Amino acid sequence: MDRMIYIAMSGAKQAMEQQASVASNMANVSTPGFRAQLNNFRAVPVVGEEAATRAFVVASTPGADMSTGPLTETGRPMDVAVRGDGWLTVQTADGGEAYTRVGNLQVGADGQLMTMNKLPVIGDAGPMAVPPGAAVMISADGLVSAIGAGDPATNVAQVGRLKLVNPAASDLLRGDDGLFRMRAGAAAPDADPAVTLQTGAVEGSNVNPVSAMVEMIANARSFEMQMKAVKSADENDQRANQLLSMSS
Question: Start and end of every Flagellar basal body rod protein N-terminal domain (predicted)?
Fold first, then answer.
């Protein structure tokens, strides 16, 4: 018996899962530094006494779109955007390293330099801190300097240098928190002096809202098509049962 209904059900299920991924991209169209999740379908041949043309469909997420998002000038001294390829390094809750393109930095109450998501920013010697109330300046090469409140402009103190890295895209994995981490077994990358920053600017999401909307429509139509196939398979089974009942 041809398992048409199961094949159609698998297609509908994968269309729903891919729709969730596209919806996540759409929801983050305004999230600074967001990288769109790529989605693909792949065919898995049915093993068994079925027609050779039968294949299940499986949704796969081969990675993220690493293209650069648009830059927005803010004029804020602590806003930085990575030029071209590269990443800022932050410390995760478990003490490990993760990588982000979100560059709207801030100083915590204890003077710790962190992202807007409260993640400590890592420099050349670990997490960075500046004197509370100090004015912070960040240069294009990631050098962080600070001037204490009321101090003359000549009293600039170098706090450290941001750890800017540029690992191969194939070595990075996106986490559920939106941060990227190295694949299992891959060593943490060293700072790359070729990575530079643009200060007073932030990078936007690289999600194209028009493309994402087209994908959502295509997935919805794919789901409808699979459900029609399920209905057709059910109708075929009912007609076959009627014919068998009449012949008995």
Answer: 5-35
